[in-house]
Amino acid sequence: MSELTVQEAPSTWQKVRQSNIWHCFVNDRLAMVATLIFAVIVGAALLAPLLSPTNPYDLSTIDIMDSEIAPAWSEEGDERFLLGTDSQGRDMLSTILYGARISIAIGFFAVILQALLGIVIGLTAGYVGGRVDNFLMRMADIQLSFSTMMVAIVVLALFQASFGSELYSKLAMWMLILVIGIAEWPQYARTIRASVLAEKKKEYVEAAKVMGFGPGRIMFRHILPNCLSPILVISTVQIANAIISEAALSFLGLGMPVSEPSLGSLISSGFEYIFSGSWWITVIPGVVLVTLVLVINLLGDWLRDVLNPKLYKG
């Protein structure tokens, strides 16, 4: 009597290694380098309380006499401060780690808000159609006619003028997330709507209707999983855009307060000292910001090509 051999189901890690995305990733050096740099920056930002030499939020650790000290590798540098200090005497390495954490958090949560709004609106417009579709898409067109920066500047300036700088400083992070998130939802809505218009004509949607499933279940349980590829690509690009928007608003004085610096506010606070010789206060956070945005965009381009076989040349 022959023995039946039972094959074990592959683990999640085995499924990942057998996937096409993993094969494309390990054969693309640029994607691997970008992922490594991104992981290092994000990991260092998340572990800022453990990696930072000092806590830039703790005033007891800051000495104004240590202000504008050059990086340790320069002749005027101090070995206590690897990347130098800013105009307030804070260690630049510590402020950059904490600032990167704030910038990444704002970008990440703003994109989550964008995606939630855009997906719901795009699914509804594409699936329901008719007047609902026309109304929602006209709303998206109106939203797109205003730039994100213009909307953010007006809203944040009005909030700061109406409720005062003290309250704004406490709510600055959440205000930035709300403004950047709400201003960018049409990007998701238009993309999702186009995918839904193609998906809702397929047989599996008709079968779901015959089985008596409601519109909500059909949209979110059946159509949405088939529209995830463009969502992933958009999200990577939008995270980079959100980080840049936050940095620009902070540079204009409408972002994070000086007491809780982001990368943008660090660049802004050191800009007036760049011509007096203290270039590191602005340049080093600027390099970190540019590197972070660059690797995110590279990962977004790679993901777009991999998810579209016609574009991938790996």
TrEMBL record:
It is found in: Cell membrane. It is a multi-pass membrane protein. PROSITE patterns: ABC_TM1. The chain crosses the membrane at residues 30-51, 102-130, 142-161, 167-185, 227-253, 273-300. CDD domains: TM_PBP2. GO terms for cellular component: plasma membrane. One of its GO terms (biological process) is transmembrane transport. Residues 100-300 form the ABC transmembrane type-1 domain. Pfam families: BPD_transp_1 (PF00528), OppC_N (PF12911). Keywords: Cell membrane, Membrane, Transmembrane, Transmembrane helix, Transport. Belongs to the binding-protein-dependent transport system permease family. PANTHER family: ABC TRANSPORTER PERMEASE PROTEIN, OLIGOPEPTIDE TRANSPORT SYSTEM PERMEASE PROTEIN APPC. This is ABC transporter permease. It comes from Endozoicomonas numazuensis.
